[in-house]
Amino acid sequence: MTWFYAFDLFGVAVFAITGALMAGRKSMDLFGVMVIAIITALGGGTLRDAILDNHPVSWIRNDLYILVAVLAAIGTVVWVRFTRPIHETGLLVADAFGLAVFTVIGTQVALQHDVPISAAVIMGVMTGVAGGVMRDIICNEIPLIFHKEIYATACIAGSLVYIGLYYLGIPENLDITLAILTVLAIRLAAIRWHLGLPRFHLLDRTPPNDDQ
Amino acid sequence: MTWFYAFDLFGVAVFAITGALMAGRKSMDLFGVMVIAIITALGGGTLRDAILDNHPVSWIRNDLYILVAVLAAIGTVVWVRFTRPIHETGLLVADAFGLAVFTVIGTQVALQHDVPISAAVIMGVMTGVAGGVMRDIICNEIPLIFHKEIYATACIAGSLVYIGLYYLGIPENLDITLAILTVLAIRLAAIRWHLGLPRFHLLDRTPPNDDQ
Amino acid sequence: MTWFYAFDLFGVAVFAITGALMAGRKSMDLFGVMVIAIITALGGGTLRDAILDNHPVSWIRNDLYILVAVLAAIGTVVWVRFTRPIHETGLLVADAFGLAVFTVIGTQVALQHDVPISAAVIMGVMTGVAGGVMRDIICNEIPLIFHKEIYATACIAGSLVYIGLYYLGIPENLDITLAILTVLAIRLAAIRWHLGLPRFHLLDRTPPNDDQ
């Protein structure tokens, strides 16, 4: 499916840009920028494939993925250096779109491996968010995903929509489109109205000499 | 073996609870709580299976693992919110028991793959502790395991006991039981009397402009 | 190839020493020292093998790797405790040599799996640097590699030299030697003259209530 493949590469580029921007906030060198961009863009899918035993992974099968991630990273550095600042809202919308595409791809791949529904949803979410989690861990931050507006919840919803339509036998282009729109709608609404899940606050009442 | 399978699920629930509590200390949202719970409970076994090429991993083969982890996470949030505080000592003992079960399972799986003894011990320890290490890394803390009372050392001992009895041809239920008791005895003694391994203190005498 | 295998074990020992020293700076206990040493020495190759589906991984196939890493860790603790301080320059040179060997091994393994050139380079760099990145993440530091003198760039150059000579049909000992010398020359020059790649500084102008 050509248009879906184009969406996939678009998602790789967008995620690579968010990785490059985070690397820039940490004043990394140019190599660091490229590595963080590649990990952000391709880490989620690689983790999914290693756990599913789905080999070869995307960027080994097809070197266009690495090329797109590297070009997006270089483009980000050049853009920030010589041009206007990043358009934050545009980036958020693009990121939501990449998230939607990655979630659907992850769920698809998992269903092709005949996994239970719970595992298919986890694979969808993992494909969407694990690259960003790796980016944040390497940059020594608590992953944003656990703190910000409904992000992975949008992935769960989109993944469930895709699974439901898949088992109903809906034509493939339609189920992909509806699942992507589900993720996009939830994520954009969360951004627009600052929606979030309730937090679980637990005071650390543990005395300093405690065993745990 | 039904009773050992029940022990396994019990370990999953206990580890999920420790993950949910850590997520609460970091004020994560409900999705973050569930993710950290799942990673803490199932991350060690998943890492072991990816390295051993032992597919499909447990929670893909059987969706009860995810269900137990999610229910334990939700139960923790509800419990902390509406009921009494966590019984710290009870949790420590339950955690030691889960650690013992996971260590034995990891060693068993490794032996079934005909690995050297050193790798079987590492797989046992990895199954027992890697989930907690992932939890601590994502929550941006130096993993507790490297700082606290004899924890992984108990896993090493239990793993070696299991390997020894396995090669001696002891009946399976007996070797499992003795290995679990070994881990439990060492870990509970360490908790009770605050035992720890010697530390390796190295002052950082490196000048700030150093290359390393 | 016996001499190259000896180089490999030498690299394992050197990387284990850097891991043990970092664990000492964090005052870890003896178990933590051994774990960090093993992860630093063998983590890069293990990650590469899991992604390439190259099983069994080195330390499962051959238990000498774990033995060397553990002995190097114990030797480091004993040395620091009872003898003179670490010879920093000697360690840097040894580390550069280990980096060179690991990079060539990673590239070799990838080429045997018929991957695209971009993936072979990534596998070479990953084998050389991922163990150190894991060490730094577990010890809660932003990985040094992204901040210091040309390190991974040396791996990229060595990997490309090896790939070029490999496709030219140069005899194997010669291509390995030239690739190792490439990494060594670049890395030692970077250490000697404090060379570095340009940094990408991005001020964080994001307001605190931002969505991203």
TrEMBL record, chains A, B, C:
Cellular component GO terms held in the UniProt record: plasma membrane
Transmembrane regions: 6-23, 30-52, 64-82, 89-111, 117-138, 150-170, 176-195
Domain of life (superkingdom): Bacteria
Limits of the Glycine transporter domain: 6-79, 93-166
UniProt xrefs under Pfam families: Gly_transporter
Topology of the protein relative to the lipid bilayer: Multi-pass membrane protein
InterPro entries membership: Gly_transporter
Keywords, ordered alphabetically: Cell membrane, Membrane, Transmembrane, Transmembrane helix
Family per similarity comment: Belongs to the UPF0126 family.
Name of the featured protein: Glycine transporter domain-containing protein
Source organism: Halopseudomonas phragmitis
